[in-house]
């Protein structure tokens, strides 16, 4: 199951967003730093109307939607990498997730305290990313020190790992997070065991006030965030109003009209024993009405482990464990 950590500075709307996503009131949302210390955890099913049609075509009563585990992580502050604000504990929580949702405050409100005293979302992003990179730099440098002797005597594994770590360290020293480093698939395998904080797939959530949601595309704070993350981080930014979403918690699901979009994670058993995947596009399957008809029209195909799954692909995995 994909684990996504919700991070950001204190008082930017993390816990409010967590409550909205998980449709609970489990996370305390208060107007002071560190109202969240131990992370709140919630599991959310990802709705997809296409499942009903697939259920009909497959003639089955078993439907298991994708699920995402969200972790509401306490607000980070400048100096977290050296333990400021219980930073080491919170950084550990980030290290344990697969992806990051970084909430960025894009609204003015004198009644909601900001730890820096002013609203500057790009500055806030840089504060968070700097702490993540400093923590990663320590990990990378320690590992390179351990590899030095083996690499010097020509150990192929050590040499390859050292080369990857050197690339990452150079990028971090240049102020660039690990996720911006271009690595080959083989190099990615070597870097994966370090669970680098700044290498997590990240999406930025621009949190705006309820009254600003309709005009968010022209919100100067949102515009700055979008430009910054696309230019410097090759990431995407979305607009949310955490308070509006939180207000929908008490409504019935059909009244809330909210949805989540998430990436799928193949269970380790599938990955270990994967043979092939029988694949057909959802729209094609719907038009044909059955797998047999799709196969007759040449729309049903076999794909190997290198295939990049597309949105709407219906797959039957063949595996042996």
Number of strands: 9
The chain-level structural class is: alpha/beta
Residue runs with pLDDT of under 50 for 5 or more positions: 27-36, 263-267
Which oligomeric state applies? single chain
Percent strand equals: 15-25%
Fraction of residues in helix: 25-40%
What gap, in angstroms, lies between the N and C termini?
19 Å
Series of secondary-structure elements, N-terminal to C-terminal: EHEHEHEHHHEHEHHHEHHEE
* Backbone CA Rg: 22 Å
Chain-averaged pLDDT: 82
Number of helices: 12
The main sheet comes to:
6 strands, mixed
Strand ordering within the main sheet: 2-3-1-4-5-6
Shape: flat
Word description of this protein:
The chain has 321 residues and is of the alpha/beta class. The chain has 12 helices and 9 strands. The protein has helices at 14-22, 50-58, 87-95, 121-152, 156-173, 185-191, 220-233, 242-247, 253-256, 268-273, 282-288, 291-296; strands at 2-7, 40-45, 67-72, 99-105, 202-207, 236-240, 274-281, 301-303, 313-319. The strands form 2 sheets. It has a 6-stranded mixed β-sheet with strand order 2-3-1-4-5-6, with helices on both faces. Helix 7 (220-233) links the parallel strand 5 and strand 6 (236-240). Helix 5 (156-173) crosses helix 6 (185-191). The two termini are 19 Å apart.
